[in-house]
């Protein structure tokens, strides 16, 4: 067998094994996500406009951004849970919040992975990973790979996209 044929065989086998491993890992998340899909919050744009303030609508529905160091939670230190302002889904724990120096609330992980949806946006001319609420598709902010251990992630979230429930 030629070297190139061996290489193609090895790469194909490796790819199949990776796909099988990934499908096994995501199966429980798909079942958990089914619950979120059944609890979906869907409204017309007029309904969103009447239930959100002008700034909330701009950030959550139009994917805007509040100015840094101006939001309610960027320097918030109470213990509790941060929820989606639009639909009240619990998203982040205060135990995973940290001071990133960016002027927006930052967390190194969500309460559960299935609470957050991700998409790639190119609004600034380069790819960024947008994060949205999995229940209502509300824009929360972005996630970056420059956060602290244990995840190395920084969920940089607009305060206006969040509400807070004190422990």
Give a verbal description of the structure.
Residues 1-34 have low confidence and may be disordered. By secondary structure, the protein is of the alpha+beta class. The strands form two sheets. Strands 3-4-8-7-6-5 form a six-stranded antiparallel beta sheet, with no helix packed on it. The chain has two domains: 1-35; 45-166, Peptide methionine sulfoxide reductase (Metal Binding Protein, Guanine Nucleotide Exchange Factor, Chain A), CATH 2.170.150. The chain has helices spanning 3-38, 45-51, 54-60, and strands at residues 80-84, 90-93, 97-98, 106-107, 116-121, 128-133, 139-144, 154-157, 162-166. It has three helices and nine strands, in the order αααβββββββββ.
Task: Give a nutshell description of this structure.
By secondary structure, this protein is of the alpha+beta class.
List the helices and strands and how they pair.
Layout: H1 3-38, H2 45-51, H3 54-60, E1 80-84, E2 90-93, E3 97-98, E4 106-107, E5 116-121, E6 128-133, E7 139-144, E8 154-157, E9 162-166
Antiparallel strand pairs: 1-2, 1-9, 3-4, 4-8, 5-6, 6-7, 7-8
What is the average of the pLDDT values? 83
What kind of oligomer do you see? Answer: single chain
CATH architecture group name of the largest domain: Beta Complex
What profile does the largest beta sheet have? 6 strands, antiparallel
Termini, distance in Å? 65 Å
Give the tags.
167 residues, alpha+beta, Metal Binding Protein, Guanine Nucleotide Exchange Factor, Chain A, six-stranded antiparallel sheet, three-stranded antiparallel sheet, 30% helix, globular
């Amino acid at each position: 067998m030629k070297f190139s044929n061996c290489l193609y065989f090895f790469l194909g086998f490796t790819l199949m094994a990776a796909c099988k491993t990934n499908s096994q890992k995501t199966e429980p998340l798909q079942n958990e996500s089914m619950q979120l899909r059944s609890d979906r919050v869907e409204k017309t744009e007029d309904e969103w406009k009447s239930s959100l303030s002008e700034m909330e609508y701009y950030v959550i529905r139009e994917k805007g951004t509040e100015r840094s160091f101006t939001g309610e939670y960027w320097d918030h230190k109470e213990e509790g849970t941060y929820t989606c302002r639009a639909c009240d889904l619990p998203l982040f724990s205060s135990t995973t919040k940290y001071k990133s120096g960016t002027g927006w609330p930052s967390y190194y992980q969500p309460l559960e992975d299935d609470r957050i949806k991700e998409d790639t946006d190119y609004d600034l001319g380069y790819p960024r990973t947008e994060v949205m609420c999995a229940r209502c598709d509300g824009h929360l902010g972005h996630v970056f790979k420059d956060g602290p251990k244990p995840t190395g992630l920084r969920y940089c979230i607009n305060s206006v996209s969040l509400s807070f429930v004190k422990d």
